Amino acid sequence: MLTELTLLQFRSHRRASMALDGRPVAIHGPNGAGKTNIIEAISLLSPGRGLRRAGAEELMRRDEAVGWKIRATLQNGQEIETSAQPSASRDVRIDGKSTPQLALGRVLRVVWLVPAMDRLWIEGAEGRRRFLDRLTLSFAPDHADAVMLYEKAMRERNRLLKDMVRDPSWYLALEDRMANAAIDIRANRALALTRLKAAQNGAQTAFPAADLTLIAQGPEDLRQALAEGRAADMRAGRSLTGPHRADLEARYAVKGQPAAQCSTGEQKALLISLILANARALRAETGDTPIVLLDEVAAHLDAKRRAALYDEICALKLQAFMTGTGAELFDTLGDRAQYWEVQETDGTSHIIEGAS
Fold first, then answer.
1. In 10 A of CB 169, how many CB atoms?
2. Where are the beta strands (DSSP E) in the chain?
3. The whole model's pTM is what?
4. Half-sphere exposure (CA, 13 Å, Cβ side) for 311?
């Protein structure tokens, strides 16, 4: 849980500070005012490139060639700082000490939904893998290490394939690393699916449960499969088997209907159901809950379902950061939430507390 958040020279915000008390946070303002920039900053307090998958240079204020910085204080007193200077990679510090980005996953757990994910069930598998891996990371903080090791070895192997290197000795160590990391990736993903399923079963919720299936993770003996598949991989110029090819399938449990065939509103409700299940499972098992980022959360939700979502967020004691174009979208939250209005003047965003 965050108690303080400060943005410096981050996207449209020259300087923004928020004092937080643990309640859900409703952020409202017109399109383009800088609401999403705030929750993007929070997403960068976890491993990875954040909810927009932006590079460090893209996060700097428009037309200003200066670095950016994000500072946050957690409820337990820990301080997180992440920043980048022009032409430099992103720096991460925890309690003032420089640390690898992956260490963030052991300090803070963050999950999110953004409008681009509304089409998650009908577009390509890559987005669904990222969504699952973000949920998995909340249960298994070391999952990011396994994914990083696997992808690094795979990139090196793909380079050999594109260069038409045929000597097997060049591949053995890389394929060994990929196979070892794949074992952890498969196990972590399976753990996440098991816990999500358990958290959905028997839950009293207004959001439909999703039956989840993970397919095409690759054979158990990936080392052998990679060795046997080198010729085909060389023709393709990339590795054709392994957990990087996995896909997450979902069905609307009560209807028995594939998520891809559900209405837009049902697809959004299934995503929200999984986020709530994630929080429910973590709270039951560890007493901890993730920070939840919900960008334009009201989209495709009617007033009744919005109210139900807010009730569940409050019941789970989630620190959820939600954005919307108008304060009226959060009316049913009442004094259960903190409110911040975002305004934009001459390309600079300003935030005002308590404007509900």
1. 7
2. 2-10, 13-19, 25-28, 68-74, 79-84, 91-94, 97-98, 110-113, 210-215, 247-252, 257-258, 291-294, 320-324, 338-345, 348-353
3. 0.91
4. 10
**Euclidean distance between CA atoms 242 and 223, whole angstroms:** 10
Q: Would you report the helix, strand and coil content of the chain in percent, each value rounded to 5? A: 45, 25, 30
Write down the domain spans for the chain: 1-109+290-356
Kindly provide the b/e burial profile for residues 89-103, where b requires at least 16 CB atoms within 10 angstroms of the residue's own CB.
Answer: eebbebeeeebebbe
Euclidean distance between the first and the last CA atom of the chain, given in angstroms as a whole number: 22
Phi-psi region of 20 (alpha: psi -120 to 50; beta: other; left: phi over 0): beta
Q: What distance in Å separates the CA atoms of residue 259 and residue 261, rounded to the nearest whole number?
A: 5
Give yes or no for a contact between 206 and 312, defined as CB atoms under 8 angstroms apart: yes
Place domain 1-109+290-356 in its CATH homologous superfamily.
P-loop containing nucleotide triphosphate hydrolases (3.40.50.300)
Query: Which residue type does 311 have?
Result: D
Q: CA-to-CA distance for 3 and 203, rounded, in angstroms?
A: 30
- 203 phi and psi, to 5 degrees? -75, 135
Residue 176 pLDDT: 97
Low-confidence ranges of the chain (pLDDT < 50): none
Q: What are the pLDDT digits (tens) for 172-203?
A: 999 999 999 999 999 999 999 999 999 998 78
pLDDT in tens, 20-55: 999 999 999 999 999 999 999 999 999 999 999 999
Percent of the chain with pLDDT over 90: 84
Q: Is 338 exposed, middle or buried (0-12, 13-18, 19+ CB in 10 A)?
A: buried
